[in-house]
Amino acid sequence: MIENDMFEEEPDVVDLAKESPSYPIDSDDVVYEPRSSRLLVRGLGENDLDEDEEDYESSARLLGMSFMNRSSNQRSAASSYTRQQHSGSCSKPSTKTTVVGVLILVLVASMIMVIYFVPGCTFSRNGCQKTNSTMNSIYPISTSGELFPWTELRLPPSVHPVHYNISLHPNLTLMTFQGSVSILVEVLHETKNIVLHSSDMNITKATFEGKEVHVLEYKPWQQIAIKFPEDLKKGKYVLNVNYTANLSNSYDGFYNSSYVDTN
C-alpha cells in the first residue's frame, strides 16, 4: 500500500500489520490490498462513508490495481527471461559440431575396417609376397609343386621331333626295365619350353646339348616339360633322357604278353 496522508486519515481503515482490532473481524469485511502486507478493513464504524472517504477509497483501489498490473507484468517478464535461459542450456548442437562429430566417427570406422581386412603382412618389414594369380589360374601345377609351362593336351608346335634313338633293358624277373632315348629335335619357333608325352616313367636324368636340365611332370595329361632360362633359337638340338619303369600289364607303353602253343 502506498503511504499517503489520505489513507492515514481514513477512520474506517485499520492496518492489521501494525495493530490488531479490539473486537472480532468478519472475513467478509476484510479486503486484501495488492503488493502489501496491510489489510483494509471496512465497516469498522457505524457511520457510512462520506463522499470524500469514498473518493479516497476508490483512489486507493485504483492505485492498488495499477501497481498490481505493473507487478504482474514484471513477474511475467522475469519468468519469460528465466524460461529462455533454461531452454538455452538445453539447446541443440550447432551444425559445425555435428559435422565434426560425424567426420570423427567415419575416420574411426575406416581405421577399424583397414586393420581388420588388410593382411597382417602389410604392416611387417618384409611386406606381403606378391603371387601371380593369373599364372596360377591358367597353368597347372606339376608333381614337384611348380607351374607346368603348358596348358593343352596336345603338344606345342614350336618343337618338332626329327629322329629317336631308343635303348631298352627289361628285367623279366622283376618285370621292370631301364631305358634311354636320344631325340633330335628341331626348334621351329623361339621358345623356352620343350614338352613331350610320358606315362608312369621315372626320369632319372635329362640332358640338353650335354647340359643336365630339370624335368617337370604333369600326370593328368601324361606330359613332361623342360624349361630353359632363355629362348631357344631356331635350329636342331639333341635331348637325352634316362628313365626306369615297370612293364605294363595293359596294352600301352612297354608291356609284357604271353601266348600258348601246342607244346
TrEMBL record:
UniProt-listed InterPro entries: Aminopeptidase_N-like_N (IPR045357), Aminopeptidase_N-like_N_sf (IPR042097), Peptidase_M1_aminopeptidases (IPR050344)
Residue ranges, compositional bias (Polar residues): 81-94
Residue span, Aminopeptidase N-like N-terminal domain: 160-263
SUPFAM superfamilies in UniProt: Leukotriene A4 hydrolase N-terminal domain
The entry's keywords: Membrane, Transmembrane, Transmembrane helix
Bilayer-spanning residue ranges: 99-118
Source organism, top-level taxon: Eukaryota
Gene3D superfamilies on file: tricorn interacting facor f3 domain
Region described as Disordered: spans on this chain: 1-28, 74-94
Pfam family, one: Peptidase_M1_N
Position of the signal peptide: none
Sequence ranges of Acidic residues compositional bias: 1-13
Record flagged with keyword Transmembrane: yes
Name of the featured protein: Aminopeptidase N-like N-terminal domain-containing protein
